[in-house]
Design goal:
With 233 residues, the protein is an alpha/beta fold. It contains 8 helices and 10 strands. 35% of the residues lie in helices and 26% in strands. A hairpin with a 2-residue loop joins β1 and β2. The longest helix has 17 residues. The structure holds adenosine-5'-triphosphate. Adenosine-5'-triphosphate (ATP) binds next to α1. Keywords: ATP-binding, Nucleotide-binding, Transport.
């Protein structure tokens, strides 16, 4: 589904992403971990063609993402609040996103009912602009907006970071549900090793721009990662 070849991104002559080869299969749920500055967000930005590569390429369905827009039709992402339109209310934003994908209001309203628990009464009908929501609630809007798009590829950067424990649990089951559908390729970055190992079938560990580990999640994965990060301290 996604192939990375000889991908290098440098800032001030330092390679912050340096991935000779990475292949992500259709339907995989991948957890992306790594300490601050490891290059996770930069990798997402390269995958979304938000920044230029210095070398190499990211291919989605065999096509270089920097050379065409086809991947935008089936790829949804939420990296940060900058992806939202903050002078809209959540409803207006969801309808807008829906309209870009040919989905009418009635359909969006029906879909939004599925996220009632996740929203916990704080998102819809509150007559607030997105900019006036808490960071955690903005994150909920961003995540649900990606899911409304019914994507084939879903990229979420630290979705657990600002949300409360109840929402984290709900988000985990949402992501697990997506993973079980097997037609959505999901990459989720997180500093929470418990959450990320629970929702992912494969873990990619980055450090200083390079992939240090690429492992299938198993019974020992959490302890393997904890050991790695404790030695890194
Ligand atoms: N626009 C930029 N200009 C200069 N350096 C940058 C820029 N964007 C990212 N970097 C650097 O690239 C490196 C990787 O940053 P990145 O944000 O990708 O890491 P990360 O793994 O997402 O970190 P975190 O876990 O803290 O979010 C860091 O050293 C960062 O300072």
């Amino acid at each position: 589904m996604i192939q990375i070849k000889n991908l290098v991104k440098r800032y001030n002559d330092v390679a912050v992403v340096d991935i000779p080869e990475l292949s992500i299969n259709k339907g995989e749920t991948i957890g992306l971990v790594g300490n601050n500055g490891a290059g996770k967000t930069t990798l997402f930005r390269l995958m979304l063609d938000l920044i230029r590569t210095d070398e190499g390429e990211v291919r989605s369905k065999e096509e270089n993402v920097a050379e065409n827009d086809h991947w935008k039709r089936y790829t949804a992402s939420f990296l940060d609040e900058g992806f939202l339109i903050d002078y809209l209310s959540p409803e207006e934003y969801f309808y807008f996103i829906g309209s870009l994908h040919g989905l009418n209001r009635a359909h969006i309203d029906e879909e939004l009912e599925k996220y009632d628990d996740f929203f916990n009464g704080e998102i819809l009908g509150r007559k607030k602009y997105i900019r006036d929501l808490s960071k955690g609630n903005q994150c909920k809007v961003g995540v649900v907006a990606t899911l409304l798009q019914n994507p084939e590829v879903l990229l979420l950067d630290e979705p657990f970071a600002n949300i409360d424990p109840s929402t984290q649990i709900r988000l985990k089951s949402l992501i697990k549900g997506i993973g079980s559908e097997k037609h959505i390729t999901t990459i989720v970055s997180s500093h929470d090793l418990n959450h990320v190992t629970e929702v992912s079938e494969r873990i990619i560990l980055m450090e200083k721009g390079k992939i240090i580990k690429d492992i299938k999640t198993g019974n020992n994965t959490l302890s393997e990662l904890e050991e790695y990060f404790s030695v890194m301290q």
